[in-house]
Structure formats: C-alpha cells, structure tokens
Amino acid sequence: MSDDLDFLAREAQVLGNDASALFGDEPLFPTSPVSQVPAAKEEDLFPDFPMTETITSPQVVPLVEKESEASLNFKEHFKTLIAERDQKSKSKHDLILKNAKNSIEKFYAEYNDKKSKNIQRNKDVQEKPMSDSLSIWVSLFFVLYWC
Predict the structure, then answer these.
(1) Burial class, 28, CB count within 10 angstroms (exposed 0-12 / middle 13-18 / buried 19+)
(2) Among 10, 15, 73, 99, which residue's beta carbon has the most beta carbons within 10 A?
(3) 143 vs 23, higher pLDDT
C-alpha cells in the first residue's frame, strides 16, 4: 500500500496546480492509509446464531428412495418365477437320475440273467454224454449253426 501512496504523491507533485484544477481542492488520496474501524464482536455480527468453538461438519443423511409398488410387485413376481423354474429343473434332474439308475440296474439284471443261463446251458451240454444226444451229426450241425 505504501508503494501506491508514494506513486500518488509523486504524481501530485509533478502535476502541481493542474492536479487541483482537475480534481478540485480535495486531496487525491487520503492522508491516513486506512481509517480505523472498531472491531466487531462475533456475537454482534450473528446475534441469532449461537457460535460454537469447534466447527463440525454437517451430517450426511443418505437418501432412502422408496421403491414403487409396481417395482416391488415385479421383483416379487420375478423371484417366484425363478423359484418355480429352479424347482422344475431340480425335479427334472432327479427324474433323469432315477431313470438312469433304473436303466443301469435293468441292464445288469438282464445281463447277469443271460450270463447265468448261458453258463448253465454250457454246463448241461458238457455233462451230457455224447451217446445220450441225438447223433454226432446233429450235434455238429447244432454247434456250427448256432455259433
């Protein structure tokens, strides 16, 4: 601020009488740089607001938006559809597993039955003497034809 006052003083000195003719008899700048203003108390500036010693940040309250009834209905309907789909999928999966187990058990039961019948038939054929059978040619024909 002192640089400004020095500049203005030099200008007034250079201009001399012309400065008073241009601007009148009033000085171009105040003689005292800053007028003294009495300091105001905080209570005087904001009388309605209580002043606190510590500054606290405002509390952030999250906005809770209520969902519309249509949105809630849709979500509920969607959940029921998913539950029904999952139930159908599980029951179909269980049915497939049950059918697969039954098919495997049936296959092995039939296989073991045929196997035991063939074993028994082979034992019977081996135990029979050739004289009891029809003729040797019929036996040979039977063996060649069925094998």
Answers:
(1) middle
(2) 15
(3) 143
Q: Compute the distance between CA of residue 3 and CA of residue 1 in angstroms, rounded to an integer.
A: 5
Q: Whole-structure pTM over 0.70, yes or no?
A: no
Residue in the block written with tokens 């209520």? 66
Angle, CA of 48, 50 and 56, to the nearest 5°: 130
End-to-end CA distance of the chain: 127
Provide the residue count of the chain.
147
Domain boundaries, the chain: 1-32, 99-147
Separation between Cα atoms, residue 53 and residue 112, nearest integer Å: 95
Rounded to whole angstroms, the Cα distance separating 45 from 32 reads 27
For the stretch 25-46, pLDDT in tens is: 665 555 555 555 556 565 566 6
> What's the token pair of residue 85?
């789909």
* CA 126 to the chain's CA centroid: 75
Q: Is the separation of the CB atoms in 62 and 42 below 8 Å? A: no
